[in-house]
Amino acid sequence: MKIHFKLNGVATEVEADPDEMLLEVLRRDFKLSSVRETCGVGICGACTALVDGAPISTCIFLAALAEGCEITTVEGLGGDHPVQRAFEEAHAFQCGYCTPGMILTVKAFLEENPHPTDEEIKMALGGNLCRCGCYVKIIDAVRRAQLSS
Amino acid sequence: MSDPRVTGSIRYAQDIEFEDMLHARILRSPYPHARILRVDTSALPEHVIALTPDDVRGLGHYGCQIKDQTVLALERARFAGDPVAAVAAPTRREAEEALDLIDVEYEELPGVFDVVAALAQNAPLVHERHPISDNDAAYFDMRPQQGTNICHRFRIRHGDIEAGFAQADVIVEETYRTASAQHAAMEPHACTARWHDGRLEVWTGTQTPFNLRMELAGIFGLPEERVRIVCPPMGGAFGAKTFVRCEAIASALARKAGRPVRIVLERSEEWLTLNRHPATIRVRVGARRDGTLVAKQVECLVDTGAYADCGPGVAQKMGFASPGPYRIPHVWVDSYCIYTNLPPNGAFRGYGAMQAIWASERTMDLLAQRLAMDPLELRLKNVLVDGDHYCTGEVMHDVHFAECLTAAAERAGWSRDRRGKGLCVLMKGMQTPSRASIVVAANDDGSFTIHCATAEMGQGAWRSMRLMAAELLGVPVERVHFAEPDTDIAPYDTRTTSSRSTYMMGQALVEAVRQVRENGELGYGEFVSKGGLDPDTGQGIASSHWHQGAGAAEVSVDEETGKFQIVRLHTAIYAGRVVNRAGAELQNEGSMIMGLGTTLFEGITFADGQVTNANLSDYNIPAAGDLPQMSHDLIERAGADIHGLGETALPPVPAATGNALYSLGIHVTELPISAEAVLQAIERRDQRQATHDSKEGAKEGRR
Lengths: 149, 703
What we know:
The complex is a heterodimer of chains A (149) and B (703). With 149 residues, chain A is an alpha+beta fold. Chain A has 2 domains: 2-75, Ubiquitin-like (UB roll) (Roll); 77-148, DNA polymerase, domain 1 (Orthogonal Bundle), CATH 1.10.150. Helix content of chain A is 34%, strand content 15%. Chain A has helices at residues 22-28, 82-89, 99-112, 118-124, 135-148; strands at 2-7, 10-15, 48-51, 54-57, 70-72. In chain A, helix 2 (82-89) crosses helix 5 (135-148). In chain B, the strands form 8 sheets. Chain B has a 7-stranded mixed beta sheet with strand order 3-5-1-12-9-10-11. Chain B has a 6-stranded mixed beta sheet with strand order 7-16-15-14-8-30. In chain B, a hairpin with a 5-residue loop joins strand 19 and strand 20 (448-451). In chain B, helix 9 (311-321) runs parallel beside helix 10 (353-371), helix 13 packs parallel to helix 14 and helix 15 (581-600) packs across helix 16. The termini of chain B are far apart. At the A-B interface, helix 2, helix 3, helix 4 and helix 5 of A face helix 1 and helix 15 of B.
């Protein structure tokens, strides 16, 4: 089936099977390797993309459901987004595998709640796991992103 | 903004692509122990390449310490998950569908699922023989016990153990258990293999490029130079990406297909690929009335699963970590590496030390209680200081145990109130002996490029190398590049494990930089650490230097339900000299957070040899919301050696937490610590208290 959506600002059309997940389509057809599979069951957040501004686990989101949506991956942030800058300044990553998903979740979160408490930050990060255990510095990055935006 | 981790442009092994590449999947045994009678692939469509036992029967055996593995299981599957066949197809989906079309006939065999059963007389043998590997990962003498399930036993014999216990006023004894755990690196195991001009080339996330090259050369009967390993950065590893994982299957498939083959493991397959060794550890320790330790006896039973992997090394390290950083005149250690029909266990951040420290440091608090001593005072009285001999006979130098302990205790407010608080002090060895070598090349534009085989898995090693080189060269770090490790170019290195790279490569770098400054073109440096232990006596050099640290935990317990929380956590780690500040902090924090998982909820569960929680919904790893109040110290000394920091802050978390519970009379012996275990311990404490009270009451009544 043909699916149409806006990907990182560009209108696109793609052919996908009805049972294919968005993750597969973004990686295979658009070579967006920042969208990564870890758990495959929507728990870890490594495959996060923004669908109409909301963070979504693309490993359990049917590609067909993206029809007409606006999809953003970290490639679409341009590299100099305040949240990206804050992650770099705070050294909020080690292996970097979970980082794109973290950044997108934080972007959406701060847009909704520009001045969160630490407890709210921890809860907002609940769907993004980091096995390197960078949470102390990730929380710091969220605070910095909040100050700089 | 340039960091490829923030822009998402970093490329891991799973992102390597070739135009005509095939995607592979592995068919695994559903039985924990079974004879393989027939593997029938005749139903597969023509465009799917199948790899069966018959394809690999003629290939070499492998195994980094004991040579007990074949590319696929041949006659017998030894755990539920043992690869029995593999397929490669143009798409992952076609490969997945092809697995269902392979027909395998098995004959189930009785299995052994714990170390006690495996040691029983007439227990089924997981392997008939235990041939010692010629890989340099077999760096110590091994003592396989042929005709049993023991593939290695390690001993320490120091002093006269019976005389030692005879001198003791107080003896305490306890048995501890730790569960298996899964590394759960965010990036799964991934590799792509291709054959090109009669050479095998593999792009893989590995911590051990040279060990892997040697194994693949052995399997395919090639000279080592005809195998090339390229190591992109990894999305986490923690010990899981060592030696041979899926590379041999990918290579064999690629050879049969005549095309590049990529394997990316499914998440559930991670639990069938490599886990942490569960251990049963019995500790008996004796002291004089004043707290002076006189004797310690330890037995470690280390479950290595169906294949030895580096289990012998883990058993050795657990053995020599178990006496702890103390002066003890009489020590007796027996550590056994034991096969079972469970998935293989291997290197895991801590490498056996966590299990040993859990048992050893919990016992120190039992002893403190029996002696009515402050656990801090008991430790300070006995910790090793410079010039002391460890039970291996080696002389300790540059040791700072008292300092680490005092720092941790201070941060915990130990002197104000000890209730709900616990301490732990630890030492952990570094891979010894080992060799590191490095090349620094001057480029035409005035920049420099480092070539070495140190792998990047998120620990920040590449940045640390660049920082050290920049300092030595006197140029900004931006002018120093690090080339992705490639065994065709980088000189030999033992491997990126045991927190050795910054120290070892840092030493090798000094000579490489001296040369390149002198000749303006190319410098080569090498550094070798010497040592090793006698497997029968444990005498020698266990570690050319020691990772050292201490931790303090504070808990709050809901006495009605047994649910408890770690409220505050602190570690004090000896760094010697910090090279990469942010990286060092991240390693400490990351180790502590991984330690939280080990303490609170990480344990692989099995039923009849099957893993029952092989996913991240049933197997929990720490999330941001699990964080207690956390802090840590990096202790430095002017002119000191660099000390690796990759693992030291993990082991204090479980032991300090267990001791914090014990300060409330709650004695637990198993990891992870469940609320149920805490509740049972509370009930046992209250019963003891009631018995004690009624005895006191009876005494009172008689007066």
